[in-house]
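Subject: for your reference before the review

Hello V.,

The reviewers asked for a structural picture of the protein, and I figured it would be easier to keep everything in one thread rather than splitting it across files. Below is the amino acid sequence we used in the manuscript, unchanged from the supplementary table.
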Amino acid sequence: MADGSDMMGSLRNPAAFNNIFGFRPSQGRVPFDDSADLFIDQLGYEGPMARSVRDAALLLSVQAGADARAPLSIAEPGSAFAAPLDRDFKGTRLGWLGDFNGYLPMEKGILSLCEKAFADFESLGCHIEPVQCEFAPEKLWSSWRTLRHWMVAGSLGATYADPQKRALLKPEACWEVENGLKLSATDVFAASVTRSDWYRAISRLFEKYDYLLLPSAQVFPFDKTQPWPTTIEGVTMDTYHRWMEVVIPGTLSGCPVANVQVGFNASGLPMGLQIIGRHQADFAVLQLAHAYEQASRWFQRCPSPLLRG
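And here is what came back from the structure prediction:
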């Protein structure tokens, strides 16, 4: 087990790349004081990673709970997550977001691996259908960039202002700060309104579906000497983090999101699937992830020995 934080998939991408379970809880589920600001800086949350859902839930039972030092923390005892995860999922409605109707470039094999996992959900009694999402995904990306620029500029602005310290920053960090310093208050407000509109849109989707599904990553694990993927299936990534855009819908919603394992490609590289639940329905997401885990048993399988070490 391990704890971590997730602003742009850091509990989901690594979990998918290592064939383990990762869980980004609802906003406020795990109290933390990782920022000078306690009210507005609400993109990154703390959560657990583990080989099994049960282990992750046990860790969350210790992490979660109200804390007077975190005014937005949820007033529900963490002990609730130590309860048995077993549940009947007959008739549960799952919506498949996939690649947002072709908007997100995906490395070949990712969508097919995720779709093969549907059989395990169906064996639980779930019904799966493609989602026709009316919210324009490019708006999510624009909102995300603005909010991230602003937050990074706020946290690293003083470091950037010192020439000696600035020289120690990565070019990507400098790029974030520089773009953040160009923003106006109305730019940030507009981005927050877009985020709010997305929350309203996903809440409407949850009137029809109990959970939403989409891949955990747009690429399979890549060589450690490569800083980041610059293209995906011929599509150029225009920023250093565009290849992780698939995690943005979950991040901006503030809803609980899990990564579950869906198997390996022909090269033995693992991939994962995101399960997004309703606001504060963290335990329900863990329950579905646990049921899927028991049906698929992927958590008991390991990558090829050739990929180790």
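For the response letter, the relevant points are probably these. The longest helix spans residues 137-161. The domain at 2-128+211-307 is CATH 3.90.1300.10 (Amidase signature (AS) enzymes).

Happy to draft the paragraph if you're swamped.

O.
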